Amino acid sequence: MASELAPTTMLEPDGCWRLLRQVDVGRLAVIIGDRPEIFPVNYAVDGGSVVFRTAPGAKLTAVVSSPVVAFEVDGYDEESHEAWSVVVKGRADIAHGFTQLLDTTSLPVFPWQASKKSQFVRIAVDEVTGRRFRKVDVSFWEPSSGRT
Asked: Are 29 and 36 in contact (CB under 8 A)?
């Protein structure tokens, strides 16, 4: 019943990339050991890839040991009352060498935290998917509505 009232629209890849370019913070999903972990990161879109900066630590260790990652960004349009979500899946690689570093250091990736984040990681995207849906009023989920 909920899907009839608030249908989900699947987004085309071009629409997903447009939305990815509108936001500068996303969530990186990695595997550390045998557990999933999620980290917020500032990022930039560079062609068909996502680039973020990091420091030595859990994120960097995770992408080195298990480079298959997911990356998620979402947003909400107050005017249209529509929410959206985009998920990227791919392989994360640390930028090495003069050319790779030159390509990444010029990107507008500005972490919010004031610490040294000298490592650039590029997610080579294998798949990008997204969806858009209209946000329902909270009353939709009230016990009196019979939908809970």
From this structure: yes
- Which one-letter amino acid corresponds to residue 136? V
Pairing mode, strands 68-77 and 49-54: unpaired
* Domains, the chain: 2-137 (2.30.110.10)
Asked if 10 and 3 count as a contact pair (C-beta separation under 8 A), the reply is no
Global pTM value: 0.82
User: How many residues are present in the chain?
Assistant: 148
Q: What is the pLDDT of residues 104-144, one digit of tens each?
A: 666 667 666 667 777 889 999 999 999 999 877 777 777 77
- Rounded Cα gap, residues 67 and 19, in angstroms: 24
Q: How do 35-46 and 82-94 pair as beta strands? A: unpaired
Contact 141, 148 (CB under 8 A): yes
